[in-house]
Amino acid sequence: MEGDKPLTATLMCTVVAVDHTHLCYRVCSLCEKTLPETDKNNNTSSSSSSLSSACKYCNAFNPVSSNPKRLFRVLMSIASDTKVFVVVMFDRAARVLFGCSADEFFDFAKLHPFSAETAAKALEGEMLRVTLSKPKNGNAQHQRVVSVVPLRSGFRPAIENLRELYG
């Protein structure tokens, strides 16, 4: 057992890069189990028929399937004072930086195709205080961002900057 390594750590860091190609994933709106993407070429594809978006688990208990929803899963490189490493930020923490839900961001990105890339560029260089935790899943590759606090006093979430930019 790793008794000498803490499960969580809080540190000051800078955002080096954000992977803007896969910012979100689809889940069942009832049980939040991950659903497969309908378009394998593009993670930000639009939802198709309810058959392809139905949760196999919930569908057995609830024949009236609801629409899936999206949650953030943001892969990003951050730099502390000693090293650069890749972390994954899920929905709760990502909402702080993006300022909206993944569904709202997805809908905005459908209207403005380069908004995900623009948001990623806007977040580069931001100073953050993050709390990281080791993944509970043994197969996970990256530490998870449990909480994030922007350190710049004039910080604006990405969606605010995008709405101003795209009008």
From TrEMBL:
Database matches in Pfam families: Rep_fac-A_C (PF08646)
Ranges for domain Replication factor A C-terminal: 10-124
SUPFAM superfamilies, per the entry: Nucleic acid-binding proteins
Domain of life the protein comes from: Eukaryota
InterPro entries: NA-bd_OB-fold, Rep_factor-A_C
Protein name: Replication factor A C-terminal domain-containing protein
